DNA sequence: ACAACATAGTTGACTTAGTCAACCACAACA
DNA sequence: TGTTGTGGTTGACTAAGTCAACTATGTTGT
């Protein structure tokens, strides 16, 4: 019988989310792990990423993302910039305050990352990530 | 810089949950993936598992689990049996109908499982699962 | 040029998942 | 026997995810 991958994966994600939430929450201002996830992407592709790009990357529902972005704008971490190529769309930029949050919370996230990786080799981590990507790809392929 | 494990893992779980939901939902009667997860455990340890055992295994919050079980009982898939050793507690048993659901939905889950694993070797799967368990363990250790 | 269709983003309404605190009944034990 | 601990339940809540309908703009084919 084929090994069941789901259960350990559910467990891992559960633990990871909890640790992340704790790590983030300490400092805390109205930011959830999901906000952080989006904020990091915006920070990385500063002013060169649209809401739809983020939907493609993350598979977050576009409705949900619209609200997340609205909240991040409300908090002053993110702003919209006109997209001259498409008036329906806009680029997302991060503010100085937003950058600060990302920096601050990235160190918290990295602590969690390190804890998670303890006892594993770099090669194992790399393989793990590769397999995770492959499996996600398999599932997504199959879903259209 | 250390590789970020979170993003591919979030993606994978997201895709997996969506596929699972689709697979389960086709047949469908008031069952969510989480119900299924619990139901499978009860089926496996039939009449030898308590609510608290499941909490230990899955890290599902005990409040949430109490409600899940209540729902499964309401659907007639699960029943409580007195625990002679501890009157606060009870063993969980699965009904014939419950078994049927588990069988039926297991085949759907296995389809998802196979899609996810396509292109990977058994060895890779085994390693992946081992690493996932190790990482969850690392995080949980650290959290008390 | 313009109708038909597609896409980016928004809003509403909803379900599922996860969390925390308070509580009850019973257990364990000093 | 009283204090403290544990299994389970309920209330009240937040976070995450989903689906459908809609607006405004873009794209394509004729």
TrEMBL record, chains A, B:
Coiled-coil parts of chain: none
UniProt source species: Shewanella phaeophyticola
HTH marR-type domain ranges (all copies): 6-137
Stated name of the protein: MarR family transcriptional regulator
Keywords, sorted A to Z: DNA-binding, Transcription, Transcription regulation
